[in-house]
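Troubleshooting: if your tokenizer reports a length mismatch, compare your output against this known-good record of 300 residues.
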Amino acid sequence: MARWYISATVQNGAGGTRDLVGEKFERVTCTNYTSLVTTLIAARLALSNNVLPMLDVANRDGTTGTTFPHDGYTRAGGFLTWTNIYKPAAAIWPSDPRTRPTAEIIIATSGGATADGHTGSGATESLYTDGQTALQNLLADATGGGPYARLGSTPYRTLLSLFHSHVLDSTSLSYFAWDDFSPGAPTTSVLPASPAPGQAASAPISIALNWDIVTPVYPADGVGTVRLWAQLTRSGGPESLLNNAVVNASTETYDWVTAGGVLNAGTYNLIYEARYTDPTIGTNHGAVTTLTANSYIVLS
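Known-good structure output:
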């Protein structure tokens, strides 16, 4: 899966351009990061200064999950207006910025309304759109187009995954990061080594199925699992099948053993397929890599 971050500088140098908080995030450059962050922080502050006086004191602490679900306010006449605010658990400020909601925050799932102490006609809509524009400009400035350029298999989860460093000022808002939950294809092009010629059909057959996480399409592919399928086959004879073995991708090898006596003497072809699975969304898989070797093994 592809995990990305944008920043003015490389974060956590142990992984070079491929590491952020130890999770195999790859850095993409953002030419105007510093100026765009400064604009974003200013837009956020202007909107906060506009909204906070309309809330009672108890609801001014954003770390408690205070939020306006997107279906909980209206936009008309140049203002954003609402009747209630909400404090869903998913919106509570996390200690780890990587902790993100897994579903959209709406009224129906927000756990009931909280009186908002609304004292004005509503927030100024232009301040809201200024904030939206500032964020989109920052993301779009990332090389390759930011999260919208590769939304992956589950687009709404990709957008929900967006997080940033917790310090919110123009010098310390040091990165934005996201995960598209969509692995690449295993990059291996090396067939498993053939067993020794003339192996007896009565003996077990061991084949080491390999894949490569050192130079994958996306470094984070090695964090998930790999699904393996393999087959030894010949015309008119019995076959041996490995069906959907699931292995930690970081192991880079799997020993497929066929018991002795399962196959008759003869020449067998090998078909080997591998694909990565995302560790967070187990139904998201990468493309399949297929390797085929004719006359792979001769059994006597």
